[in-house]
Automatic annotation (TrEMBL):
GO terms for cellular component: Golgi apparatus; membrane coat. It comes from Balaenoptera musculus (Blue whale). It holds the Pfam family Adaptin_N. It is a peripheral membrane protein. InterPro entries: Adaptor_Complx_Large_Subunit, ARM-like, ARM-type_fold, Clathrin/coatomer_adapt-like_N, Clathrin_a/b/g-adaptin_app_Ig, Clathrin_app_Ig-like_sf, GAE_dom. One of its GO terms (biological process) is vesicle-mediated transport. Transmembrane segments: none annotated. This is AP-1 complex subunit gamma-like 2 isoform X4. The lineage of its organism: Eukaryota, Metazoa, Chordata, Craniata, Vertebrata. Residues 290-315 are annotated as: Disordered. Keywords: Golgi apparatus, Membrane, Protein transport, Transport. Residues 363-478 form the GAE domain. The keyword Membrane applies. Gene3D superfamilies: 2.60.40.1230, Leucine-rich Repeat Variant. Belongs to the adaptor complexes large subunit family.
Length: 483
């Protein structure tokens, strides 16, 4: 340690000889090996290690970067991240990817607040957006989506950053997503955490059109911008003709995926305009998971619970093999003999293979009527697949005994945050009159904690020339749906 300390003292821009550079490299390597076993001892050399980031020698700066990232913890994350971001702005291109990824990982692990986490990630994207990991965009959108109190702040920061630079593709993608989701907050001008920003609807649309037309935009980036424009058609209060014209242009785009998206959006405007607001609603708040260790611990706990619930053989596998060999080759004095065979039909085969008896099939879950009005009735039927006890399949069946068709029928559902909900496409949007063919829709609900299920439904439809909207909760679901 004393020799290492001596070498580090000479780690300064005044190095001129190869021997001195080699000594510094050996010192940094030694500290990097020591940091796992004695983290506090290496922390004392943090200022010197950070100073070594400025060395012109690539091998030294790379080793200093590795050691600096290893020294980041919850108590020094602000100071170390500031030093690393300064290094990121001037480091060689071959080190930018490692530095950017390291800063993002440190921020994800030790972020003191969500706002600091968002600011740090945005600064990395603005500085070295082309060198970040592939999941940086998804991680930041998930972080912003789960921080409701920072939606207005985030959309303003991203709009300003996008207006200044549209070359950093990950930054442009996140900005387009955020503007599409929270564009209404951008126009309100009610965020107290940022400088006053007056933005007009035409300016927002012009900026997204600029992204679409830029030669620097990747196909994925154009997809984000096109979707943002489509979502703004339900967020803004002005005329949507400009958005419709832009979307229609990309219906003949050479990029197949972008063309398909534009064609679908055009169809939504022409044929399903009454459903556009519901389809393009804001995404629900996302619960951001914990650290990787927490996830692994959770998975281990679930695995242990499944192991406890599964039938455990009373004999080791080796004994089972010996017993089976005894049955085939004759008795042996050293081997343990199997228990007496069950005289019931099929019992001999079950004991021969030492398989548990199949449990009786679960009793069917009773159906539940949750809504009835003017002949329109909504019923829920339930199925829990035997192989996936945490999964519940709910079939929503709408029937109509009145004299008029129910048209433009839309059923939407919401569950508490501890559940995961997936809505399948309905069989149709019209419920025929006089007891015609019912309309069905499948809900897939994952309940990992097996908590009591609460379901919130919203129905919108037209009946007898009137537009109807009903919102209600279903709190009396059978206990078999979650126990």
């Amino acid at each position: 340690m004393r020799a290492t300390r001596s070498c580090l003292r000479r780690c300064s821009p005044s190095w001129t000889s190869t021997l001195q550079r080699a000594c510094g490299y050996v010192a940094l390597t030694s500290l990097l090996r020591l940091v796992q076993s004695d983290h506090s001892a290496v922390q004392r050399h943090r200022p010197t290690v950070v100073e070594c980031l400025r060395e012109p020698d690539d091998s030294l700066s790379r080793r200093a970067l590795e050691l600096s990232l290893a020294l980041v913890n919850s108590s020094n994350v602000r100071a170390m991240t500031q030093e690393l971001q300064g290094f990121l702005e001037s480091c060689p291109p071959d080190l930018q990817a490692d530095c950017a990824s390291g800063i993002l990982l440190a921020a994800e692990r030790f972020a003191p607040t969500k706002r600091w986490h968002i600011d740090t990630t945005l600064r990395v994207l603005m500085t070295a957006g082309t060198h970040v990991r592939d999941d940086a965009v998804a991680n930041l959108t998930q972080l912003i989506g789960g921080a409701q109190e920072l939606h207005a702040y985030s959309v303003r920061r991203l709009y300003s950053a996008l207006a200044e630079d549209i070359s950093q593709q990950p930054l442009v993608q996140v900005a387009a997503w955020c503007i599409g989701e929270y564009g209404d907050l951008l126009l309100e001008g009610s965020c107290e955490e940022t400088e006053p920003l007056q933005v007009e609807e035409e300016e927002v649309l012009a900026l997204l059109e600029r992204v679409l037309q830029s030669h620097m935009s990747l196909p994925a980036t154009r997809g984000y911008a096109l979707t943002a424009l489509m979502k703004l058609s339900t967020r803004l209060h002005g005329d949507n003709n400009r958005i419709r014209q832009v979307v229609s242009v990309y219906g003949s785009c050479l990029d197949v995926e972008l063309q398909q998206r534009a064609v679908e959006y055009n169809t939504l405007f022409r044929k399903y305009d009454h459903m556009r607001a519901a389809i393009l609603e804001k995404i629900p708040l996302v619960e951001r998971g914990g650290s990787q260790a927490d996830e692994e611990a959770k998975e281990s706990k679930e695995t242990a619970q499944l192991s406890e619930a599964a039938p455990v053989p009373t004999e080791p596998q080796a004994s089972e093999l010996l017993d089976l060999l005894d049955l085939l080759d004759g008795p042996s004095g050293d081997a343990q003999h199997p228990p007496p065979l069950d005289p019931t039909p099929g019992g001999a085969l079950i004991h021969l293979l030492n398989l548990p008896c199949a449990p009786p099939p679960p009793a069917p879950i009773p159906n539940l009527k949750v809504f009835e009005r003017e002949g329109l009735q909504l019923n829920l039927s339930f199925v829990r697949p035997p192989g996936t006890p945490t999964l519940l399949l709910i079939t929503v069946t709408a029937t109509n005994t009145s004299g008029g068709d129910v048209t433009h029928f839309i059923c939407q559902a919401a569950v508490p945050k501890s559940f995961q909900l997936q809505l399948q496409a309905p069989s149709g949007d019209t419920v025929p009159a006089q007891g015609g063919l019912p309309t069905t829709q499948l809900l897939r609900i994952l309940n990992p904690k097996k908590a009591p299920l609460r379901l919130k439904l919203r129905l919108t439809y037209n009946h007898f020339g009137q537009s109807v909207q009903e919102i209600f909760e279903v709190n009396n679901l059978p206990v078999e749906t979650w126990q």
